[in-house]
Amino acid sequence: MTRRKIALAGIGKIATDQHIPTLASSPDWELAAAVSRHGRVEGVPNFTDMDEMLAAHPEVGTVSLCMPPVPRFAYAEAALKAGRNVMLEKPPGATLSEVHALENLAREAGVVLYATWHSREAAFVAPAAAWLKGRRLKRFTVTWKEDVRKWHPGQDWVFEPGGMGVFDPGINALSIVTAILPDPIHVTRATLEMPENRQTPIAATLAFHHPQGAEVTATMDWDHSGDDVWRIEAVTDGGTMTLDRGGAEMRIDGSVQSAGDGLHGEYPRLYAQMARLVEDGRSDVDLSPARHVWDAMTLGRRKIVAPFHW
Ligand code: NAP
């Protein structure tokens, strides 16, 4: 089968860590161009301007956007208006309305828009959803703690408006939560810890309404030293299930199943899904994880904490 041509834009940490190696061994995609103001990809034509790449490479039918959410909209708009399919890194946008605008553009252009959630592709997300189905939930606890200096070294955009702060990783947890919980939940209470010199929270706690009255909470911390904690625990009338390491491990009443390192296999599965969506001419834009973040930002009580320095 011939591989479809794709361009990558925003060559930084996640493009280098995941997208480039994934595309290099993809059975579906051939990396045909890159767009980045400073980054480069060896072995393909490199551009610093999106419009120039789109004009020079009409054979590139799909563009995958890896830059942060705030600047991403203009790149997505340009690609969709040029009739290309677009794949968005998470979170899909800085605001609700801009993602809706992209959905409309994709519909008008007859192309595919895929808002990816890489954490949903973790090995045990689907098994966790299947296990929870039919069980009565009593308590559901999300604990998401990591060191921003490890995953976003020097990336000031995460603390700028639209950067989402601790919700940049926290939204990964929420993408799993919204994929595995059978019932809809919504935020009822939140606290946001704001470093006095920054615009976005470095830690947050959330409480949710659950239709059957289960206690649903989330604790997120981005100033955490030691090992990453990416854990979701569900206590039900039929036992306790823990998803650990971001969904790469599942424990049911003490019995553990594990699948490689965190992030393992997530990006190959995202690109395989994009190939299926393009084949079917179908978009996939689920904003439910981002909605919880935007709700928490609206309802959250701000607590000013010590300044953050890298
Ligand atoms: P990053 O390295 O800071 O940014 C990626 C690239 O985007 C930069 O190298 C830069 O390339 C371009 N860029 C940055 N600011 C820009 C601007 N204002 N206008 C245009 N281009 C800009 O960030 P990242 O860690 O790769 O994260 C990017 C996205 O991937 C985020 O949405 C993040 O949530 C998601 N993600 C990150 C990770 C992770 O581990 N870091 C994991 C999963 C998902 P040029 O300067 O060359 O244009």
From TrEMBL:
InterPro entries: Gfo/Idh/MocA-like_OxRdtase_N, Gfo/Idh/MocA_oxidrdct_glycsds, NAD(P)-bd_dom_sf
Gfo/Idh/MocA-like oxidoreductase N-terminal domain location: 5-114
Transmembrane intervals: none
Alphabetized Gene3D superfamilies for the sequence: Dihydrodipicolinate Reductase, domain 2, NAD(P)-binding Rossmann-like Domain
Single annotated GO MF: nucleotide binding
Pfam families reported in the protein's UniProt record: GFO_IDH_MocA
Top-level division of the source organism's lineage: Bacteria
Signal peptide: none
Protein name: D-galactose 1-dehydrogenase
Organism field: Silicimonas algicola
